[in-house]
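pipeline/complex-builder :: batch 7 item 3
reading input block
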Amino acid sequence: MAAITIDAVSKSYRRGEFALRDVTLEVAPGEIFGLLGPNGAGKTTLVKILLDLVRPTRGTTSLLSLPSRQVAARRRVGYLPEDHRFPEHHTPVSALLFFAGLSGVAPAVARPRIDALLAQVGLADAAGRKVRGFSKGMKQRLGLAQVLVAEPDLLFLDEPTDGIDPVGRAEIRGLLEQQRRAGRTIFLNSHLLSEVEQLCDRVGILARGELKRVGSVRELTQSAICWAITLSQPPGEALLAELVRAFGDARRAVSDGIPDPEAARTVELSLARDEAIDAVIDFLRARELSIRGVARKRTSLEAAFLDSVAGGGAAPGAAAGATA
Amino acid sequence: MIAFLALLRDTVLEARDKRVTWFLLLLGLLFVVLCGSISFTAVDADAALTRVAGNLGEFRFSRGMLDGGFTSRTEVEVAVTAPRAPQPEDDLPLGIDSLRVVELGFRRPEQLDELAVTWRHFAARLRRDGGRGPFVVVAPGSDEERQFAAPVTAAEQLELLESRFLDAGFRPVLVRRSAEQPGRFLVAVGNERPLALRGACTVAFGFGSWSTPLAETSQAEFLAALSVVVADSFAGFIGILVLLSVFAAAFPELLQKGRFDLVLARPIGRVRIVLFKYLGAVLLVLLLWTLLFAGCAVAMGLATGYWKFRLVGCAMTCTLLFAALYPAAMAVGIATRHVTLSTLAGVGAWGLERLIETARGVLQFADAEARARWQPLLDGVHAVLPKAGELARLNQWLLASDHLGAASASRLLGVVPEVDWAFAGGSTAGFAAVLLGLACLLVARRDF
């Protein structure tokens, strides 16, 4: 039984613009799933469809085996929207009592939970203050407490560390790890790739409304093994063309605009198998080219993300080197 | 139920957060203190008796505090003796306490007949339309004119004099014609209901710091008038305006991006959210008005010994008016997400109904062609709007039947006109239901 099921979901607007195209995805119970995508990719729309805030044009979704359109599907769900606004007439305690009440949790049950949650997110001292005086970071912490107040099994978090300082981020990562250990499923929308890389079991990359890639962080970052071969002199166009013909890929290394003589003499190739590098070296040596270095590069999540978003190969220069 | 209570509490907190709510509460408290600071000092029932006897030629007719009235004066020369206790030779019935007696002597007895004819016109007009309609010129030679011109009978003269003293608040009233002297009458009046007696006391406000004589008003009428001010002018007008503006903001603010998401992501249906918010606002208004009216009634009772608990019933009337108008504000607030437009919609529906009602009244005086052209349109628009005017009549009905005799109630509050309550209630409920349904539909169908 999947915690989240998205089946061929599309969303288009009256003007014919597509927010989502035929998105299909499953998230297993207890999994932390990260959804990456540039602004306007459709990440928030997808979460809102799952929560029935937005109705899909086509396709179906379900939460914890119940169709999203049913009110009961949201009974065990917590949601932290991006740019959320708490009613300003509330204090943290009254706001959490309000949201707990909407989830059917009686005040007598909610009250001890609220005290514990406020301590956990670092708002115990501000429990009696009006929300209108809160900083963005405080509101974000309160938002997280709001997600957890009804003790949900499934959490949707849209940019949960937005506006929070590095120390606070580490605390929130700890909080999310705690939720993972408690067996809760987390669906995380984030721009912060490092955060997703550290937390998520699986990642999906959404671009222009299409789900481009889905897999574990390891799968995404290893799917394109890249080799960098540094020669004694810059490679000519003819050599690059021959390499492409023989091995399917070859390009000059790019150095982020900073003049780098070594990068100018480096050829990068993506190979399906590690063993193929022997044939490439033989190929170059057969042409009496002098080799100064060979390095195996592992694509970072950022590179995989940029690659998927661009719809082409891994973005050069975004790769972090890992010597073979 | 837990979700409803959560939304109700949220509504209370939201209203409490607005300054205008505190302004309304403060104003309400001032009214309670005002009611609690009233005291009456009896002047002299004999003085009131002498004044009424000396003003027999003056007919005052009131359509109610809100609708004005008219006064007619007929020249009558009458000699009034000083009030005295009954004497055995007066031959009055035994067993009536505290009777006071005056003797009236009409210098020109025919003036009493002229007064009786004027009284006939008044009575006919009241019977016709409660005095609300225009003056009608009686056609010469018609049955009505013959009735008005018919000779005044002796019984009618007695009935006229009796009604003048009853109207002033005396109970009982006995009028007897002198057998020996034509145009001379003995009038014996009781004062069973001193609160209802007009012109017999002074009223003080602010715990005695400011006082004024009540020349033409009884204590009961004065307190009824104050109740009308509280129910109609304060709660029914200022209060509704303030509360509409407070609650009209609720939906545009709730639908703000990032705020409604937090609510919609909870296991509660959209229609239920709208209905619960509406119900919460109506219940809160009912609670506010009940506290205000109960506070005024208790304060008034403690200060004057005059327990006017029917005033508390006006809380329901004012709440019904709010409940009828608020869906208009809700629907526009949800459609536009604009606080000002939402407020204007609620107040506008109310203002439009009042405007149409006034236009219908004015149209009665227009010529037949104008009436034929405009009446169907005005009636059609009026039919679909909430009946604020009729709801205000409910207040009149409640207050008029409390501690006031029929004549005093009519004089002060006007004759409550015939109202088709089924139509008024049905069309008002229909207006609210349609707009509430529209509000639910807008929320249910929209992406957030």
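note: Chain A has eleven helices and 15 strands.
queue -> next item
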